[in-house]
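Summary of Year 1 activities. Much of the first year was spent building the evaluation harness for sequence design. The harness presents a backbone, in tokenized form, and records the residue chosen at every position. We chose the following record to illustrate the format because it has been used consistently in internal testing since the harness was completed.
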């Protein structure tokens, strides 16, 4: 089993419904959802649908010490971190993907991601050499390669970028065509400030299985 620490909208946040319908699956229930009536949307969203609507805080990893030990520690770490306001989100192009990005940098968001990456890393089984080499094919900076060795993922700490992925990687022509559709579907509910009161533990039971929300961990009030 793999686990990950993600941000995901709360169930009563309209972004949960709108974003899940855009992807075609609810990560809370695992149920498939009817997508907007757009030719090609099932193919554009196939890859992010597997992971569910989320933004990565601590990337997926195999557990080293068992579920109960990890969950107890994750609850403790989450409870030590204050909740905060997340800036409004907007549809942007991110490394060739369409994604929701925050309107302005958020230091509390950076602090949350840093804490989860570092303070829960003892529960991570080290990545195999095969996995490390696969990541390096993307072309990493020296610092990103160091992050990969130390934390199992290159885009953490100084290289963390919050993003809620909405599509696979697109050509410029595809992005120009699809972006207005994504904006029409999610922008109204994404473009508002929201309180971050929890982080989500997502789990993947086996390779290629969809990720599901297993636990919602409360931050400090």
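For this record, the design step produced the sequence shown next.
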């Amino acid at each position: 089993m793999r686990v990950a620490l993600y941000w995901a909208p709360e169930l009563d946040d309209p972004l949960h419904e709108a974003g899940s319908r855009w992807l075609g699956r609810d990560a809370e229930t695992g149920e498939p959802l009817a997508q907007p009536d757009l030719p090609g949307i099932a193919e554009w969203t196939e890859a992010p649908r597997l992971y569910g609507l989320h933004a990565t805080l601590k990337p997926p990893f195999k557990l080293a010490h068992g579920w109960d030990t990890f969950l107890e520690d994750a609850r403790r770490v989450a409870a030590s971190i204050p909740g905060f306001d997340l800036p409004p989100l907007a549809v942007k192009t991110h490394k060739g993907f369409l994604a929701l990005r925050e309107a302005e940098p958020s230091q509390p968001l950076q602090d949350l991601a840093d804490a989860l990456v570092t303070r829960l890393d003892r529960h991570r089984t080290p990545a195999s050499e095969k996995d490390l080499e696969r990541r390096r094919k993307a072309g990493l900076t020296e610092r990103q390669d160091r992050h990969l060795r130390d934390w199992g993922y290159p885009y953490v700490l100084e290289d963390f970028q919050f993003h809620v992925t909405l599509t696979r990687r697109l050509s410029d022509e595809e992005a120009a065509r699809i972006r207005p559709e994504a904006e029409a579907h999610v922008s109204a509910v994404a473009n508002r400030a929201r309180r971050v009161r929890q982080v989500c533990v997502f789990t993947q039971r086996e390779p290629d299985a969809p990720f599901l929300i297993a636990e919602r961990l409360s931050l400090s009030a």
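The chain has a mean pLDDT of 96. Quantitative recovery figures across the full test set are reported in Table 2.
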